[in-house]
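Below is how a single chain appears once it has passed through the pipeline. First comes the sequence as given, then the structure the pipeline wrote out for it. We keep one example in the README because the format questions we get most often are answered faster by looking than by reading.
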Amino acid sequence: MHQRNWEIAVIFVLSVLVCLSTGCVLSGPKYNWSENIALSASSGRAGSESLDSPMHDDNINTYGETGPLLLDARDQASLEAADKFSQATLRWVKPQTIQRVVVKTDQYELEFFNIYYQDDEGNWELLKEVKNNISKAYSYVNPKPITTTHLQIRVPNRWDSRRVGGQKRRTVGEGGAPSLSYKKIREIEVYYALPMEAPVPTE
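Resulting structure:
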């Protein structure tokens, strides 16, 4: 019995290796994505005439920075969140359907961050918690589309960095009060899924 299980395991591993070497894709459903709707968003402070950030200008050579987390309320939880996070927020005049978010940064710039969206009642809802990211282009696809007018990248001021020059280092901002640390973001891209084209029947 153990011999049989071992043979099955070997066959499975070999099958995976063959699939990967020949370009097989072991992933979920395929999508036909829209154009980047972040280009039509505003990122200046709400209610002000401040300029939009270059973090959604379709130019990887420019970047913007996260800013202070502005309070929607004065309760204790909101005050604590404002001390712990910085943010970058995209706003649309009309509700947008969103299913894919891409965040492009310099490597190791955003190891930890959260993606939030604002619901119909104005509450911030967590879309994705990202940990130990070392990619220059992090892409998240939500299982189902959401509709919102606000999307926010929220970055903690402190985290335990495990990848800096191959060495583990102390917690960023460790010691005393949390340090105010703004992070560079080169691009935020946002997409929604388009209907897949039906296959053309063959005779």
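The two ends are 49 Å apart (CA to CA).

See the next section for the split statistics.
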